[in-house]
Design brief:
One of its GO terms (molecular function) is hydrolase activity. This protein is of the alpha/beta class. Helices cover about 30% and strands about 15% of the residues. The chain has a single domain, classed as Zn-dependent exopeptidases (Aminopeptidase, 3-Layer(aba) Sandwich). It is built from 7 helices and 7 strands, in the order E-E-H-H-E-H-H-E-E-H-E-H-E-H.
């Protein structure tokens, strides 16, 4: 099967212009909203089913950040092809036609079939009717996973160098009800927002508490580190002792779209406006922390 190199990411940011200043020590990324499906993917399920794995509309919902001077990094490749929010060692050996030659991590997500390369969708539907080669998986890591992580690291380093500290929001969505093979709590009815900082390991708790209070004041139901604590990207980049704070934000899809058709609902604009206002508040808040 020919291996086609996909575009790894898109950077919507004032930083597209080399001399543009950063307005605040704030960086956003959306690792699961990519919709460019590479020709070498060859899944066994239809396009409609594949799209259920996406964080549909998340990059657009946060998109006003760019106009406010805040960089927004988004994956171009789809989550079902390779998951940027998993560790590179989270290899599902059941998918491969031979043993993986390097170290692997048998994480809970791998056991659910949701490792670096997904084995199944949230409802348990197998993604492939074939085994993947080691070369295929290595290609996806080199062409997609590594460039995405490297670009996010560059953005965070630039903000940290400019301000001495940086705050990072890892942007996600979640279904209104957890799928049978999505988490270890299938059937769980999700709140409006879940904020995750791995129980304070990836951020000063003040960051999540500011966001939680802001959202609750506008009537949203918000939980903290339950049921989602944050996964690879906040783990990799959140080092609060060094002034690097990473927070995962999960948004319930029922707030903004039809979960079957994937089309925006009548509440879409309201939520997008709230996220714009939250970004403005975070620009002010993060700048105040470095004053």
């Amino acid at each position: 099967m020919p291996i086609i190199k996909p575009l790894s990411y898109r950077l919507d940011s004032p930083q597209n212009y080399p001399d543009a200043p950063l307005c605040a020590p704030l960086v956003l990324d959306s690792p699961h909203s990519g919709t460019t499906y590479p020709p070498d993917f060859a899944p066994a399920v239809g396009f409609g089913a594949l799209r259920t794995a996406e964080d549909t509309w998340v990059d657009d919902l946060w998109g006003d950040a760019v106009d406010l001077g805040v960089p927004l990094l988004g994956a171009s490749f789809p989550r079902a092809y390779i998951d940027a929010n998993r560790g590179a060692e989270e290899i599902d050996q059941l998918l491969l036609d031979e043993a993986w030659p390097d170290a692997i991590s048998e994480s809970p997500k791998v056991r659910l079939g949701k490792g670096l390369i997904w084995r199944m969708l949230d409802d348990g539907t197998p993604l492939y009717d074939r085994k993947l080669s080691v070369a295929e998986v290595r290609h996806r890591i080199e062409a997609c996973w590594k460039p995405y992580h490297a670009q996010l690291g560059t953005l965070l380093d630039k903000a940290h160098a400019r301000f001495g500290k940086v705050w990072h929001i890892n942007c996600h969505s979640m279904p209104s009800v957890a799928g049978a093979y999505a988490t270890d709590k299938p059937g769980l009815v999700h709140p409006d927002f879940v904020l995750g900082d791995r129980d304070g390991a990836t951020s000063d708790p003040a960051f999540r508490e500011f966001v939680a209070a802001w959202l609750r004041e506008r009537g949203y139901n918000v939980t903290v580190n339950d049921p989602y604590k944050g996964v690879e990207l906040v783990r990799a980049f959140g080092r609060p002792a060094e002034g690097r704070h990473s927070l995962q934000i999960e948004i319930n899809r029922k707030l903004y779209m039809d979960e079957v058709s994937l089309q925006p609902s009548e509440n879409y604009v309201r939520l997008k406006n709230h996220l714009r206002e939250l970004t403005i508040a975070l620009v002010d808040w993060t700048r105040a922390q470095t004053a």
